[in-house]
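Hi there, hope your week has been kind to you so far. Please have a think about how the structure follows from the sequence. I've dropped the whole record in just underneath, so have a look:

_____
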Amino acid sequence: MQGNKLYVGNLSYSITNEKLQEVFANYGTVTKVNIIEGKGFGFVEMSSQAEAESAKKGLNGTDIEGRNVKVDNARPPAEKQRNGGGGGGYNNRRY
């Protein structure tokens, strides 16, 4: 495991940050919860890598508010490409 941030997928759309924090608090200290609204997933940060691993093992595949959640290590965000594209083919148009 690379860190203490976890991805939590297949969440109920009605779950709150507070409820998710309460569930993960059974495995250690939760330092941050971020649910992505309308997407059914979010992220939970634990205070240590060991706590995150424990939460992952204990909660992956369990039922939270009627949904079997997927808990896994969070991947770092992908870098955005800055390639300035767009508009191609303008000079080839005939009017």
About this structure: The first helix runs from residue 17 to 24.
